[in-house]
Amino acid sequence: MSAGRIGYGLVGPRRERHVMPSGDLDGLALPVGDDGVVIGMDAEGRPAVLGINRPSPYDVTLIGGLWTAQVLALRAAATGARVAVETGRAQVWAPLAQAAGGGQQCVTLHEVGRVPPQGASAGSPVLVVRDCGMRPPRGRVVAGPWQSVVTLLPYLSPTAPRLLQQSALVGVQRVSPDEAEQIGRLMNLPRAAVESLPTLGDGVTLWCTQRDRQFVMTQGTEAEVSLLGGARRID
Predict the structure, then answer these.
(1) What backbone phi and psi angles, to 5 degrees, belong to 51?
(2) Which residues contact 120 (CB under 8 A, 6 or more apart)?
(3) CA distance readout (Å), 53 to 59, 81, 133, 173
(4) Comparing C-alpha atoms, which of 159, 177, 175 is closest to residue 167?
(5) CA 203 from chain center: how many Å?
(6) Distance (Å, rounded) from C-alpha 86 to C-alpha 83?
(7) Of 17, 21, 69, 190, which one's alpha carbon is 20 to 30 angstroms from that of 232?
(8) How many C-beta atoms lie closer than 10 Å to residue 114's C-beta?
(9) 138 half-sphere exposure, CB direction, 13 A CA radius
(10) Share of the chain above pLDDT 90, in %
């Protein structure tokens, strides 16, 4: 399996309990790596892990709801990453920033276009979440070694084709039938996946690349639900 497959995390210490037959590897459409963020469960009930702490640039576009982006940010912070949120609606991120990190400032909020250099490193990886509306400007801080960028789009927008083409991974939540058709063409999705997109439940995301795809159900923990409420597609 190549390191370019969806969600593949860093290779961690090798232990006997991690060994599996090589023939089983092809069945992992959204591989579970040794390092990453558990973003939910796949259709077989297995944990789906997104490896965002990488030594190479990693861009992700999520066409979906604020709730999913915030859960991803919280879970990234829990793995030790620093999270920088670029947003025009700081008021909806402030409770999360205050609650994360157990008193340490691991989630910082910045105005659109005002994210300073983050100084990401292997010992201090960074996740930049861009919550900049339907037409996010080109980012001042971009993906780089140990610094991944997640761009949140509430719906398909004129900037979406460019973002999807540039992204290593795309997440799609419930969209309209017309949007589903456009995304299907852009991401080379099979017909069944396209037809399912307008019917997805809250908390369900199709994570995909041009060659791989996996539906994942994200459910909030007790602490996440207390802070963010239940899963929802519409904010």
Answers:
(1) -85, 95
(2) 82, 126, 144, 145, 146, 147
(3) 11, 8, 25, 23
(4) 159
(5) 13
(6) 10
(7) 190
(8) 10
(9) 2
(10) 77
Q: Which residues of 5-39 are buried (b: 16+ CB within 10 A; e: fewer)?
A: bbbbbeeeeeeeeeeeeeeeeeebbbbbbebbbeb
Least confident of 31-45, 87-101, 147-161: 31-45
For the whole model, what pTM was predicted?
0.84
**Cα 228 to Cα 60, 133, 225, distances in angstroms:** 22, 20, 5
Confidence of residue 121 (pLDDT cuts 50, 70, 90): very high
- CA 15 from chain centre, in angstroms, equals 28
pLDDT for 123 equals 94
Q: Which of 62, 105, 64, 47 is nearest to 208 (CA)?
A: 62
Residue 41 forms beta bridges with which residues?
47, 217
Tokens (6 digits) for 75: 């879970």
- pLDDT digits over 28-59, tens only? 344 334 468 999 999 899 999 999 999 999 99
Task: Select the more confidently predicted residue: 10 or 6.
Answer: 6
pLDDT > 90? residue 174: yes
**Cβ pair 224, 71 in contact under 8 A:** yes
What CA–CA distance (Å, rounded) separates 167 from 181? 19
